[in-house]
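ugh ok fine here u go
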Amino acid sequence: METVELARLQFALTAGAHFLFVALTLGLATLVAVIQTRATFSGNPVHLRMTRFWGQLYIINYAMGIVTGLVMEFQFGLSWSGLTSFAGNVFGASLAIETLVAFFIESTFLGLWIFGWNRMNRWAHLALIWVVTLTAYASAFWIMISNGFLQNPVGYRMTNGTMELVDFGALVSNPASLVAFGHILSGAMIVGAFFIAGVSAYHLRKRTAEQELFRKSLRIGLALALPATLVTATFGGFGFETLQPAKLAAWSGDAAELAKVQADMVALHGPGDYLPSVGWVSGGGNTMMALFALMLFFSGAGFVLMFFRPLVMRFRGWHWLLTAMIPVPFATMIAGWIFREMGRQPWAVYGLLKTSDAVSQVSAGQMTLSIVVFTSVFAVLIAINYWLLARQARRGPEAVTLGATEHPTHPEPALTY
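structure:
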């Protein structure tokens, strides 16, 4: 296998794995912030316990997301020096802003939120989780600004064979970025909603002690799942207006349109193969649409059933199905990511820099070693993350340490909310 293919494989595996952490982080952060807001205003101890339980799961996932995100930053210099040399002056600005937001602001305020339980005013503590949530959105926004530039280069000029940023406003307002950001953010809400609904359904099915807590959590997850699914579909529809012609032609499998796109590209860029892999693009797109239909069915049915308390509490078959649905939004997000990224090929910067010219000058053996190391590390991190999440989710609120008092025999100060 050529070096460029190995580099693509490495980036696909590591970026896809990191994407799974990001999706759950965005969804859970929002739901934890909403639940804590309800707890702060109402003083309801059930909502306080909900905040701590779901907050601890969020922290586990967030920590792994940070670690895998660091690896992603390294790969631009290690594997894609041609890309950073050619276009780093443009999309590097948004990546730098994202790093400042995620690794400084978001992480700092999350640390204050974690260690501020029972130590600060409840309103100040509530403000912290909302800052964490909004900076998580900002982090995703700047990542999509960078990705959107690679999909649809804007706001640049060519100087001595490299790109320079001349219009920051055009970079930030790129339709290929903004529509994708809305699509990703609403998709993350689906991930969070089905995660909360599935874990809650598991505990309701097992008849664990905190039935009221998980009944309320299930209703929150189901109430969010349907509108989030519909909003995601809406942004996805808008996204078709920003897709490259080759990507659309590959998804539809229209041979005549593919030939036309190829001929247009040859006329612009000279001889070469300018078409993406039809199998990967159509496979990713069709899988995304099929799983979307499945989520739409379950979110619609769940939205109706949540109005019937006996069904929510006692329908064990429904609980089992909801728990089984937890991985489906993750798979849908990955399928959509494959569709978006594979459809851009063979370009690293669409129409300007081919992927084969973006890869670093390293040997196939060096890249193979890099893949083995990176994927091994990621496999261990993913296994640890989902083992920790599953264990904590199964153990329930009784095992939560987030916000716990040092003297458990005393009444929890958090109940003074």
